Amino acid sequence: MKKAYSALLAFIFIGTYINYVDRQTPLYTAEPLVAVSKGQATYSPLKGVITARESNSVVASRSRAQFNDPKSELAIKSYQHYLKESIPAKELSCYFKLVDRESKWNPIAQNPKSTAFGIGQFLNSTWGLVDSKKTSDPYVQIDAMIKYVNLIYGDGCKALDFRLYKGWY
After folding, report:
1. Whole-number CA gyration radius for the chain
2. How far does the chain reach from its first CA to its final CA, in angstroms?
3. Per-residue CA distances from 120 to 54, 95, 169 (Å)
4. Which tens digits make up the pLDDT trace of 10-33?
């Protein structure tokens, strides 16, 4: 009986000691959510995420960041990176040329002579073809443009060829 009692006390003592030691060192070393400049402090994770989006077009495109100025250089780089990640590499230059001719990457570009709107310059009737609604969200516009191009032309280079021949796609 004495042996069992001693073993129980030893078990409790050792368990308590291990718990105490474990609390002194974190079990999970977490990576910071965002990287900030040395000496800079952030009081909220959201502010840090926004800072990261504003400093990096890759982070912005992956998080589908919205910009105060949707025509800014960083915004355009974000849209371009998003498109690059969404299509085959061989079609990239064709899509870029197509968008440059249509809207110059402006997600709020409005054709004064028609209902053509956004990065892909979709007409109001075009949105329904790709099961989408007219929106100013540039990432949704890019997704819709890719669906439309694949549905109607098969790939971005054929769409560009048609655009160069007809003046529209």
Report:
1. 27
2. 90
3. 24, 10, 9
4. 667 676 656 555 555 554 444 545
DSSP string, 64-111: T---SSTTSHHHHHHHHHHHHHHS-GGGHHHHHHHHHHHTTT-TT-B-
Distance, in Å, from the CA atom of 33 to the CA atom of 46, rounded to the nearest integer, reads: 10
Q: What is the DSSP letter of 34?
A: S
Task: Quote the tokens at residue 76.
Answer: 């355009």
**Least confident stretch, 33-37, 43-47, 135-139, 159-163:** 33-37
Q: Where are the chain's structural domains?
A: 3-166
Distance CA 49, CA 53 (A): 6
